């Protein structure tokens, strides 16, 4: 723990804007609830091909009527600074747009009604054009059933010289997921797939955030061949989980430093899972924390390079030197 406390807030200033990752494109999310992330994005911007601020929610208000909320968070000065050229490359700002508060009927209308599809495509493409974005990241449930909508949105954005990145849930026994054939099919009109290979464990089944063998299985499940594999952006969590007596809490860097400073735990490495963890007690309650370390980050970067996938990082934080 002492080396973590000593070095957690340090980084290689000479390497901060050099992309060292040898795989595919890199995307990094920035969230409004972590304002420090906006500053970190500026420091490390040369390492990313895409930066996705988590700004927008999509609401269906009535027939053919859609409303976007979150536009008040758009910061054009920050976008300009992020998008400035670094070593001949431009970072594309592609905000995330997430379906919010949708009912099953709302989804049914978008699946079956052509006018609904056209209305939402126009709403999203107009916002991207008006704000000057490089495209967007789309997150929605039932994405497998929204092929027609995704196809039309992709075509519209491409006409505007913008890109479409689709969020995909990881392969789990209890979760519907794309087949490899569907991945190849959607690849015709999607520029990238942000695969959420994290949150493997829960309060019911405490454990690692993203066992490395499971991450590798996801790569091979979606892309058993190398065709379109470069469009797979392998998810990497830059946060940890704190499990205690049936509870689970997401924790970020500042919180874990406080815990380590207070409890000075023994930090252990699980070779099979490829993650570090430690235990501590607070008010008599035992806790187990799984958190990404430099070693676990490096091993996943190596996995992505070996398979020539890209990366999607949730969310921008400490530990970016290796990227």
From TrEMBL:
Q: What is this protein called?
A: 12558_t:CDS:1
- Protein species of origin: Dentiscutata heterogama
């Amino acid at each position: 723990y002492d080396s973590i406390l000593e070095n957690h807030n340090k980084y290689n200033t000479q390497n901060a804007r050099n992309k060292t990752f040898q795989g595919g494109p890199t995307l990094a999310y920035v969230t409004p609830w972590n304002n420090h992330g906006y500053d970190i994005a500026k420091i490390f911007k040369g390492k990313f091909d895409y930066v996705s601020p988590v700004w927008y929610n999509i609401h269906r208000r009535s027939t053919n009527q859609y409303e976007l909320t979150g536009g008040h968070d758009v910061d054009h000065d920050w976008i300009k600074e992020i998008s400035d050229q670094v070593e001949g490359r431009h970072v594309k700002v592609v905000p995330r747009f997430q379906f919010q508060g949708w009912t099953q009927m709302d989804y049914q209308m978008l699946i079956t009604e052509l006018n609904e599809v056209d209305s939402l495509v126009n709403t999203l493409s107009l916002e991207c054009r008006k704000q000057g974005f490089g495209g967007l990241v789309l997150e929605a449930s039932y994405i497998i059933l929204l092929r027609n909508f995704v196809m039309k949105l992709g075509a519209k954005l491409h006409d505007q010289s913008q890109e479409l990145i689709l969020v995909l849930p990881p392969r789990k026994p209890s979760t519907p997921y794309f087949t490899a054939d569907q991945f190849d099919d959607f690849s015709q009109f999607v520029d990238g797939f942000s695969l959420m290979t994290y949150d493997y464990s829960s309060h019911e089944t405490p454990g690692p955030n993203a066992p490395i063998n499971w991450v590798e299985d996801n790569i091979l499940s979606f892309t058993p061949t190398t065709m379109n594999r470069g469009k797979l952006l392998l998810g990497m969590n830059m946060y940890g989980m704190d499990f205690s007596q049936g509870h689970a809490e997401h924790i970020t860097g500042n919180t874990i430093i406080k815990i380590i400073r207070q409890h000075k735990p023994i930090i252990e490495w699980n070779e099979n899972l490829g993650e570090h963890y430690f235990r501590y007690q607070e008010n008599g309650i035992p806790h187990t924390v799984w958190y990404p370390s430099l070693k676990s980050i490096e091993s996943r970067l190596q996995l992505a390079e070996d398979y020539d996938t890209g990366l999607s990082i949730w969310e921008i934080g400490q530990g970016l030197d290796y990227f």
